[in-house]
Design a protein that fits this description.
Blueprint (H helix, E strand, L loop, with lengths): L1 E3 L5 H10 L4 E4 L3 H10 L5 E3 L3 H5 L4 E4 L4 H9 L13 E4 L5 H13 L3 E4 L2 E2 L2 H6 L2 E6 L2 H12 L2 E7 L3 H29 L4 H8 L7 H5 L1 H5 L10 H18 L4 H18 L6 H11 L29
Parallel strand pairs: 1-2, 1-4, 2-3, 4-5, 5-6, 8-9
Antiparallel strand pairs: 7-8
Helix pairs in contact: 8-12, 8-13, 8-14, 12-13, 13-14
Length: 320
């Protein structure tokens, strides 16, 4: 089996698959990350692959957990990509957050190579990934999902949501709610602070109130102590997701005014240097906007952004 992509979510997911007894070849663009994981899994059947092709060459299941559609196209269709070595009968499990059109394009390429695709993005935090308690939204043929069910179950609870592309669609639907929550928490927390309430006390009330979704709990430290923990999920990637959400909405004719506003705020935050910060940095961005001199048009510096960062350019898919 091959596992491609060992980011903050992918690494513990791969570890749980290996600990469940499945032999694993792991690939990551930064190879030292793969080497560290294999070292952590000492005594289990796990090895480092130097390319996606090497990882997938002998695999009957290929799992990928990547940043965006461009990364997916590179890993599968690039010079050392999976599609060049895919064996007939292999099941590809694509777990990245990409659009349904991108999933269907990959499914066609995988099918042409004799394989089958299950799109199975996840919902949950890094801690849930470590616990093997993610929610996995699986799209594809029932027989293909059945073949990889035990593997997916090592990472979380599997919910079959429909044919190929349905997993990607469901992930965007869920993320539309998540980013709405992120915006609402950010605005309400800053409102409380401006009105003289303590930030930590306010957030404590959030966790015991009607708004206490899991997202509210596992983002607590990031909101209460900005910059004190590594980003759970980068703001520029969240903006990428919102572009995918709104692209889908336009395609199906669904109006999403809240998501449009959420994207505008996120892109503004990215422009002011928060792109590589956690999505909770929307609150920092709003604080800075509140403190900006009247008429300045720019927020006061009030974050740990470091060097200037480029505006996010959404990945809109593309030709394979």
């Amino acid at each position: 089996m091959a596992f491609l992509g060992l980011g903050r979510m992918g690494r513990p997911m791969a570890a749980n698959v290996a600990r469940a007894g499945f032999p694993l070849a792991v690939y990551n663009r930064t190879i030292v990350v793969a080497q560290e994981l294999v070292q952590d899994l000492s005594g289990l059947s796990a090895r480092v692959a130097s390319s996606p092709a090497e990882a997938a060459r002998e695999a009957d299941v290929v799992i990928s957990m990547l940043a965006d559609g461009r990364a997916v196209r590179d890993v599968y269709g690039g010079p050392d990509g999976v599609l060049g070595v895919l064996r007939p009968g292999t099941v590809v499990v694509e777990m990245s957050t990409i659009g349904p059109d991108e999933v269907l394009a990959l499914a066609a390429r995988v099918q042409a190579a004799g394989g089958a695709l299950v799109d199975a993005p996840v919902s949950g935090s890094v801690s849930l990934s470590e616990e093997g308690s993610l929610t996995i939204m699986a799209g594809g043929r029932s027989e293909d999902i059945a073949r990889v069910h035990r593997i997916l179950s090592a990472m979380g609870a599997v919910i079959t949501v429909g044919p190929s592309g349905s997993g990607a669609t469901m992930k965007l639907v869920v993320n539309a709610v998540v980013y709405g929550l992120n915006q609402a928490i950010s605005e309400a927390l800053v409102l409380a602070e401006e009105a003289g309430l303590d930030r930590v006390a306010t957030y404590g009330v959030f966790t015991r109130s009607a708004v206490a979704a899991p997202f509210v709990h596992y983002r607590r430290e990031a909101f209460e102590q900005p910059g004190s923990v590594p980003p759970y999920f980068r703001l520029d990637l969240a903006a990428k997701d919102l572009h995918l959400i709104l692209d889908l909405a336009r395609k199906v004719g669904a109006r999403m005014p809240q998501s449009e506003k959420n994207l505008a705020v996120m892109e503004d935050a990215v422009e002011t240097g928060h792109g590589r910060d956690d999505v909770s940095a929307v609150a920092q961005h709003l604080r800075a906007k509140n403190r900006a001199p009247p008429g300045s048009g720019r927020p006061a510096v009030d974050h740990q952004a470091g060097d200037a960062r480029e505006r996010v350019i959404p990945d809109q898919g593309g030709e394979w």
